[in-house]
UniProtKB/TrEMBL annotation:
Residues 174-201 form a coiled coil. The keyword Transcription regulation does not apply. It is a multi-pass membrane protein. It is found in: Cell membrane. Keywords: Cell membrane, Coiled coil, Membrane, Transmembrane, Transmembrane helix. This is Chain length determinant protein.
């Protein structure tokens, strides 16, 4: 079908097209006039998704922001939010709504509060304002004032429910962490008791860095400078203060690696050494037959090494018990700190939402908008009229001009020209069943 044939067909069906288009426009306007008007009020909240949480310090990752916003939109349309809004609106005490509820026949499927909540859900919509983190809550009603009131009530109920969810989740987690803290505390107490009992039974004492005293002395002897030689009395007797002086030197050498030069403990060891050195000098003066043949540093180191090897098993077990204590103490501190944080979060009033003012009663209706309805109905009616005209044309085809015969691939013997006298003009319409015979 060429464009000329198409417009020729439309002109032939102009009455049908005009009537169909007018009927569509009339029906659309009539239905819009019969239906009750609708007013939409909006209330806004700002989602604090770009700032860290003031309690936990957590920030929502950018890849989860869209899922977070979608969750908040679904929460606004949740029964708990809508039910709370219905309670605040006083709908449960409305006799008119109760009568409407009985007439609706919904009593078999849901209770009155659920029915009211579903009514709010059906009229509520929410969406994120493009290019921002502002969530816009829209409520539709037949009157401007109720629309604004319900929009604010839904927003307030949403904020309260969000805060309630955060508090409930934090309280549950805090309770679990407190239980874990109590269990770890019991385990830590038992581990400390085992460690203390083992050290008491085996005479093993560990320092803060899990080193037993014998090993510490051995390390001190290995790293200490050569002490003053022990002096013995002729006949093999050792000077009384000579061995103590060697031990003090070893202790000073070991303490110098971990303590500052002015530390009180190091100063005390130095004072003890000075006193022992004076005692050794006095003993040497009182016994003229003293000779420098006392035990050397190597002998003291060998004796201490043998003692360390002898107690290696006990020291290793004590070190294992001390490690268990340290691990449990670290777990206890972390668990107790997390329980305190969650307890603080459970008492927080921070919902992560910022209110942006109350809704304003709309001045214009969102439905019906007659110019838009007229335009849409006109376009839809015209499209429907063209469709009907095409259907009629294909079902009952008419030959109006010679070009219409070309669609049938039929030989044309001749054509009669249109009479110049309008009074004598006659239009011959050839039915489909006679087309072939006439053409031949």
């Amino acid at each position: 079908m060429s464009i000329n044939q198409f417009f020729r067909m439309l002109w032939a069906r102009r009455i049908l097209i005009g009537v169909t288009t007018a009927a569509a426009v009339f029906m659309a306007l009539f239905v819009s006039w019969v239906m009750p008007p609708r007013y939409e009020a909006t209330s806004r909240v700002m989602l604090d998704i770009v700032k860290p949480d003031p309690v936990t310090g957590e920030v929502i990752a950018s890849q989860w922001a869209r899922a977070y916003v979608k969750t908040q939109i679904e929460l606004i349309r949740d029964y708990r939010v809508a039910g709370k809004a219905a309670d605040e609106a006083g709908w449960l005490e409305s006799a008119e709504l109760a009568e409407e509820y009985r007439k609706s026949g919904a009593a078999d499927d849901m209770d009155f509060r659920r029915w009211l909540a579903q009514r709010i859900i059906d009229n509520t919509d929410a969406q994120l304002v493009a290019g921002s983190n502002i969530l816009e809550i829209t409520y539709s009603s037949t009157s401007p004032e109720p629309a604004a009131k319900l929009a604010d009530l839904v927003r307030d109920a949403y904020v309260d429910q969000t805060l309630s969810f955060r508090r409930e989740a934090a309280a549950r987690n805090a309770e679990w962490f407190e239980e874990q803290t109590d269990e770890i505390r019991e385990q830590l107490t038992a581990a400390q008791e085992r460690k203390t009992a083992f050290e008491r039974e085996n005479g093993v004492i560990l320092t803060d860095d899990l080193v037993d005293t014998d090993t510490a002395r051995l390390r001190a002897l290995a790293s200490s400078p050569p002490p003053i030689a022990s002096q013995t009395i002729a006949g093999g007797a050792v000077a009384p203060s000579s061995g103590q002086l060697a031990q003090i030197d070893a202790a000073i050498a070991g303490a110098s690696r971990t303590l500052g030069p002015n530390h009180p403990d190091l100063q005390q060891l130095r004072n003890q050494r000075a006193a022992l050195q004076s005692a050794v000098a006095r003993e040497t003066a009182a016994q003229p037959r003293l000779v420098n043949s006392g035990p050397s540093l190597g002998a003291l180191y060998s004796a201490q090494q043998a003692k360390v090897l002898e107690n290696a098993g006990a020291a290793g077990e004590a070190r294992r018990l001390a490690t268990d204590v340290l691990v449990l103490r670290d777990q206890y501190q972390k668990t107790a700190a997390r329980a305190a944080e969650l307890e603080q979060e459970a008492q927080s009033n921070e919902s992560g939402l910022t209110l942006l003012g109350d809704a304003i009663a709309p001045q214009t209706r969102s439905f019906p908008r007659y110019p838009a309805i007229f335009s849409v109905a006109l376009a839809a009616g015209f499209a429907l009229a063209i469709f009907l005209s095409l259907m009629l044309e294909f079902l009952w085809r008419r030959v109006r001009v010679v070009d219409d015969l070309k669609l049938l691939d039929t030989p044309i013997l001749g054509a009669m020209s249109e009479p110049t006298n309008k009074n004598a003009r006659q239009i011959f319409e050839l039915p489909w069943r006679k087309r072939e015979a006439v053409a031949q």
